[in-house]
Design a protein that fits this description.
Elements: H1 7-26, H2 46-57, H3 72-86, E1 95-98, E2 107-110, E3 115-117, E4 120-122, H4 135-143, E5 148-149, H5 152-163, E6 219-221, E7 227-229, E8 236-242, E9 249-250, E10 280-281, E11 286-289, E12 304-305, E13 317-319, E14 321-322
Parallel strand pairs: 8-13
Antiparallel strand pairs: 1-2, 3-4, 5-14, 6-7, 8-11, 9-10, 11-12
Helix pairs in contact: 1-3, 2-3
Length: 323
């Protein structure tokens, strides 16, 4: 479940939660809250007021989560507080939580590029990605699974998150060296299945692991410790976005190079990741991101191509869903 935009409320929740837990030491009875969910004093506590607000808005749950049963009030408040840091705690099977950031709230995303199960898209490690599908049909396949095709805003929220995690960089700290490209060197010259044990170089013929970086490493680590597969390389991922007259892109295709204009062509380093990279067009084109097995150094979390119309499909282009 996605959270509404309660940025100021989140700050209030954390503050109230802190003072509620330590209120007994401060002697502030109106902040006190029993673990069974009712105020110790005869007054309505701040935590109860927050609980009622969250409940009225349909945010959080009274049921116990991974932290154990603290009572209805504390279950809901602690659950929402956790989601504001690490992302949703109730992602469907095969999906991982994405922390809030880059102007967006937390959401869930497929850990793996979509695989076909009848008419529905599923996120599993086994099998090669579902390809040769139009953008329109990718939308439908995500909807058949109760999800939606990942949006441009959601994609960039993930890209900006992994950009700040040192594990993804050759130098071991954010901005040091370059981020990995994913399976993109045409060895082998096809898409790959994922590994169930998060072996980041699985199938590439390269050697890397949790501690050893490689440009062909197929996973990015999020700030909450989750891993997302093939966010760069393997197959292009369709994104639910288009160019159109009031939102055109007009920049020539190129390799990753430094950019001097806001709409320039750029690449997989901290200095250039915020820039754009793609095709030279203001006509209707569907967005696709990440690169595929033959994109070389053009692949990566920030790679974007504007070559094809939404109805085009080929074997190097797949998709992933969000929720």
């Amino acid at each position: 479940m996605k959270l509404p935009k309660f940025n100021k409320l989140y700050v209030f929740i954390f503050s109230a939660f802190f003072f509620g837990v330590f209120g007994v030491f401060l002697g502030a009875t109106t902040f006190a809250e029993q673990f069974v969910g009712t105020p110790e004093s005869g007054k309505t506590s701040r935590l109860t007021e927050i609980y009622e607000l969250l409940k009225d808005e349909g945010v959080g749950s009274d049921s116990s989560g991974e932290w154990g049963d603290w009572g209805a009030v504390m279950n809901r408040i602690r659950g929402v507080a956790g989601e504001t840091v690490s992302g949703p705690t109730n992602c469907p099977t095969g999906m991982i939580p994405v922390p809030p950031g880059n102007g967006g709230t937390g959401f869930c995303v497929d850990k793996y590029e979509a695989k076909q199960s009848g008419s529905a898209a599923v996120s599993v490690a086994a099998g090669t990605p579902w390809v040769s599908i139009t953008q329109y049909d990718a939308r439908t396949a995500c909807e058949a699974s109760g999800k939606h095709l990942i949006t441009e805003r959601e994609w960039l929220q993930i890209a900006k998150n992994v950009e700040q995690v040192g594990w993804n960089w050759s130098g071991g700290t954010a901005g040091s060296g370059q981020m990995s490209d994913g399976h993109s060197d045409s060895t082998p010259g096809n898409s790959l299945a994922a590994s169930t044990d998060d072996d980041p170089c699985s199938g590439t013929g390269q050697t890397c692991n949790i501690t050893t970086w490689n440009s062909q490493r197929r996973t990015y680590q999020l700030s909450n410790g989750e891993y997302v597969w093939d966010f760069g390389g393997n197959v292009w991922d369709r994104v639910d976005g288009f160019t159109y007259e009031s939102y055109p892109y007009a920049n020539n295709w190129s390799v990753w190079v430094a950019c001097n204009t806001p709409d320039g062509i750029c690449g997989n380093t901290l200095a250039t990741n915020d820039q754009r990279y793609g095709g030279n067009t203001t006509a209707l084109r569907a967005l696709r991101r990440g690169g595929n097995w033959s994109s070389g150094t053009n692949a990566g979390a920030f790679a974007m191509s504007l070559t094809y119309v939404p109805s085009y499909a080929d074997s190097g282009m797949g998709f992933r869903c969000a929720w």
